[in-house]
Amino acid sequence: MLPAEDKLRVGIAGLAHGHAQSFFRTALARADIEIVGVSEPDATTVATYLRRFPKLDRSRIYSSHAAMMDKAKPEAVMIFSSTFDHKEIVE
Question: Is the dihedral of CA 7, 39, 19, 21 positive or negative?
Fold first, then answer.
């Protein structure tokens, strides 16, 4: 197991895009990535992901992208929201 400081701290902005599932399947099994926060405003979508990925830490889920960025402080962010929301998240 890598020390925490050697892991890339990744945030996930949105879960609407289907590619998020593939990312979670891979990332949750990797020792060099730590998912420090996930932002998704839709509670039903969040519940689906928590059931599908039991390793996903419920305490790292945020209802807004700004809260996730502020509290989780990721080094990199993967965007899996609707493409209509990408510009807002990047800004």
Answer: positive
3-state helix/strand/coil string of the chain = CCCHHHCEEEEEECCCCCHHHHHHHHHCCCCCEEEEEEECCCHHHHHHHHHHCCCCCHHHEECCHHHHHHHHCCCEEEECCCHHHHHHHHC
Contact 82, 16 (CB under 8 A): yes
For 61, residues 6+ apart whose C-beta sits below 8 A from its C-beta are 37, 38, 39, 40, 46, 50
Q: Give the separation between CA 61 and CA 41, rounded to whole angstroms.
A: 10
pTM of the model: 0.87
73-90 tens-digit pLDDT: 999 999 998 777 777 878
Domain ranges of the chain: 16-90
Contact 69, 4 (CB under 8 A): no
